[in-house]
Amino acid sequence: MEMRALLDSEIARGFYSGGLPFHYARYPHHIKSYNMASEFNFVGYVPPTYNVLRTTLLQKERAHVERFLDHIKTTWKKKGVTMVSDGRSDTQRRPLINFMAVTELGPMFIKAVNCEGNVKDKFFMADLIKEVIMHVGAQHVVQVITDNAPVCKATSMLVEAQFPHIFWTPCVIHTLNLALKNICDPSNIQSNKDAFIECHWIKEVVDRALMIKNLILNHNMVATMFNNIAPLKLLGVAETRFASTIIMLKRLKLLKRALERLVLSEEWSTYREYDQAKASLIRTTILDELWWDQVDYILEFTDPIYVMVRFADTDRPSLHLIYDMWDEMIEKVKSIIYRHERKEHFEEPPFYDVVYAILIDRWTKSSSPLHCVAHSLNPRYFSDGEARKAVNAELARFSGQTDIFGSADSIEDRGTEDPKMWWLIHGASAPNLQKIALKLLGQPCSSSCCERNWSTYSFIHSVKRNKILPSWAEDLVYVHTNLRLISRKSELYTKGETKLWDIGALIGGDRFDPLDGAEELEIATLSLDEPEMEAMIIEDD
Fold first, then answer.
1. What DSSP string runs through 225-293?
2. Sign of the C-alpha dihedral computed for residues 211, 213, 215 and 218 taken in this order
3. Which of 104, 478, 527, 530 could form a disulfide with 442 if both were Cys (CB 3.0 to 4.6 A apart)?
4. Nearest Cα to 30, choosing from 501, 494, 380?
5. What is the largest CA-CA distance in the chain?
6. What does the alpha-carbon distance between residue 456 and residue 450 come to, in Å, rounded to a whole number?
7. Cα dist from 244 to 104, 206, 235, 249, whole Å
């Protein structure tokens, strides 16, 4: 028992002296290494040295991971694959471009390209994408998803010219985020005077909210006063976070009572270190019920957009749902605005006209034929008699056949079965169309996994390891990301001492705070890979 205690102390000292986060103790590979040493009684065993870890063993582990990924790659021929890409700079200001391959089994990291010294124009980008397409296999790629930047659109034309069967699909999340920015900051669309006139009040509300947040977060004494009153902390949401404005307003709304207590407190009245004019304006704003009503209205009519952002900001197959979801989202926004302004259905409020124009403009610029085709292959949208006739005619145009899905079972299952399961069960008589359906219905609609993978880069290529070479960083990210992908297919990931072992690294902390709605919002904005993980975290707490 004394030796066990000494061993525990040495392991703990390794954590403390190396700055390892406590959640590392949940990593299955950490636990398994000690179990193996204990089980096989490796007398005189010496752990790998510094140079071996960063060279020989790293390359060996990458080859080991690649072998494990082979079974996922074998599904690409049947299920198809979406290639996603995103760019960002590392801690050394080197421009990197991430490439990942996504299927319904999850996102697989392919490579990261160091673009230092190169002009990232459409020709350079097209060459990189074509190279990755050939690596994955052009016959397997259904679509390429990037953000909506002009250079990406120009790149897509070059890629589609060489690979006519591959579509470029703008990231739905970026599209929705741009729509939210246009609505919440009309200065971005000053060329449209109507939009500026109707939406400028939103900008004023958001500016006041930013002023409140910045005053509290940037003044130590005010932050201390607030933390002593508030049950939750304010969120310093980066502008790069999708729907950052909405997330900030949601947190302020949750903290409304705490903010009111703060500005009415004696400490606030006696503190003199901040700008008194600004402090007076903030106090007036926090106590202004009309301002809070405006916050509520913004959150209410943008909620359908935010819900769609949250839905699409995952790796789940959702390409076939976007066409219908976008239409439903606009209808919900319309209903909320009409109800708030007490308008009848035949009236046209100027504010809604502006919001509608922004949403339609973004959809028009980002919609892809794949959205329409995938939507038409989803049987649940064609469950009544008249619609069945229309879809039969549409399917005939695709495959040259008619009335192939007229059985009672197939009609009954259209609205209840998962679309992929429906095609597996009822689509055998149309093998070509079935093949297309299974590929399209298994594709994502956003490049979110690439966005999340930059967190892995920050985790690995940190301030402490800022001298690491790009090639080493790529190998480490490749191993880390794909080991997580492999691990999440194991039963041990959802139970036992290694349950959700990588979530601690994702949310940037060593403990999961009790969830009461606000923390749930924080976790929700982190875009975990599967919604089931959020449910398990909440269930544990």
1. HHHHH-SSPPP---TTSTTHHHHHHHHHHHTHHHHHHHHTSHHHHH--SS-HHHHHHHHHHHT-HHHHH
2. negative
3. 104
4. 501
5. 84
6. 10
7. 28, 11, 10, 9
**How many degrees, rounded to 5, is the angle at CA 255 between CA 251 and CA 260?**
140
Write phi, then psi, for 95 (nearest 5 degrees): -75, 125
Give the whole-angstrom CA distance, residue 198 versus residue 194: 6
Closest-CA residue to 148 (of 533, 525, 446, 502): 446
> For 400-452, what is each residue's pLDDT tens digit?
434 555 666 767 777 777 887 877 877 777 777 778 888 888 888 888 888 77
245, burial (CB in 10 Å: exposed 0-12, middle 13-18, buried 19+): buried
pTM, two decimal places: 0.78
CA dihedral 330, 333, 335, 338 (to 10 degrees): -120
Say which amino acid occupies 410: S
Angle subtended by helix axes 256-263 and 244-254, to nearest 10: 70
Instruction: State phi, psi for 411 to the nearest 5 degrees.
Output: -65, -40
Query: DSSP characters for 159-207?
Result: HHHH-TTPEEEE-HHHHHHHHHHHHH-GGGGTT-HHHHHHHHHHHHHHH
Written as one letter, the residue type at 475 is: D
One-letter amino acid of 361: D
| Size of the chain in residues | 541
| φ and ψ at residue 88, rounded to 5 degrees | -165, 165
